[in-house]
Write a structure and sequence with these properties.
The chain is of the alpha/beta class. The protein is built from eleven helices and twelve strands.
């Protein structure tokens, strides 16, 4: 059984930064450090940080007064920010800068009095945070669209005053179809110069598309709460290839690989490489050859830490 590794895979710059923020805060201020929501959607990462002294909560009322709290990589609403400021909590914001870019777009469109359509998944923390950034005082409204069928049901105030943004971790293909449907219904639609799906999400989807047609099975290392990991599995399934998502090697089932000659392995943007290595080791125990690393797009993106958390050498290198 041949094993091929998608490239790129695993951690993106936003996830690296979010984890570094939690670890550095623990180092500087000691445990406990409170984190609103899972800092990234990966069980291994969350459990590791919990062992170091991070306490994960869903809402700020669970955080004691005078504590340190970190906002997750998915971002938060303006209401959450205001509550933290009102209570005098020490806050470090681990929101991915690419999510922050979407928040800024929403703010700009709201000030122009536009209705704003967010393409995304209901209940996802990034969607909740982005919806909570909209200021309706300028007369506009915000709408959530999850699929092409939702476009026909939209009720907007003025079809000539409308804009869209997207969740950063969506399927590139599905989002393109929704945008096409929006443009067909609303020819005056305004949008970002480049759709908001993040570089890492797109690169990992492209890498799976590159390898999937030559595979009998595709394994995606990632947690079920991870939107970008789920999209990778869906790419395999849409191509008629068996796709499975696993948190760790113990989740693998040997019967998945009966008769398989080529197995593709990738990882979502919130899954660490150590989990990929364990999955590969298990596949090799079951007869897999040494893995072949596929060529893919190189990533050189680095997001800066909050200044107060930077180490001396980091601060010097960033000027």
């Amino acid at each position: 059984m041949e094993i091929v590794l998608a490239n790129p895979r695993g951690f993106c710059a936003g996830v690296d930064r979010a984890i570094d923020i939690v670890e550095r805060a623990l180092e500087l201020f000691g445990a406990p450090i409170y984190v609103r929501h899972e800092v990234v959607h990966n069980r291994h990462v969350v459990d590791t940080l919990r062992e170091q002294g991070a306490v994960f909560v869903e809402e700020l009322h669970e955080v004691p007064d005078d504590a340190t709290v970190i906002f997750s990589a998915h971002g938060v609403s303006r209401e959450v920010e205001e509550e933290a400021a009102r209570r005098g909590l020490r806050v470090f914001d681990a929101t991915c800068p690419l999510v922050t870019k979407v928040h800024m777009e929403v703010n700009r469109y709201a000030r122009q009095g536009l209705d704003v359509i967010l393409i995304g998944h209901y209940g996802h923390p990034e969607v909740e945070g982005t919806m909570g950034r909209f200021d309706a005082s300028h007369g506009g409204r915000m709408h959530l669209v999850q699929c092409v069928e939702d476009v026909a049901a939209l009720d907007v105030r003025d079809p000539t005053k409308i804009a869209f943004v997207t969740q950063t971790t969506l399927s590139v293909d599905d989002t393109s179809n929704i945008v096409d449907a929006l443009r067909a219904r609303f020819p005056a639609l305004t949008g970002p110069r480049k759709e908001d799906i993040c570089y890492a999400t797109q690169n990992r989807q492209d890498a799976v598309k590159q390898m999937v047609d030559d595979c009998d099975v595709v394994i995606v290392v990632g947690s079920r709460t991870s939107s970008n990991s789920t999209r990778l599995r869906e790419i395999a399934e849409k191509r008629g290839v068996a796709g499975y998502m696993v948190d760790r090697d113990d989740d693998l089932k040997r019967e998945w690989f009966d008769g398989a000659r080529r197995v593709g392995v990738t990882a979502g943007a919130s899954a660490p490489e150590v989990l990929v290595e364990r999955v590969v080791a298990r596949l090799r125990e079951w007869g897999g050859h040494a893995p072949q690393e596929l060529h893919g797009r190189e990533e050189h993106v680095i997001f800066a830490m909050p200044r107060i958390l930077r180490r001396t050498d980091d601060a010097a290198s960033s000027g």
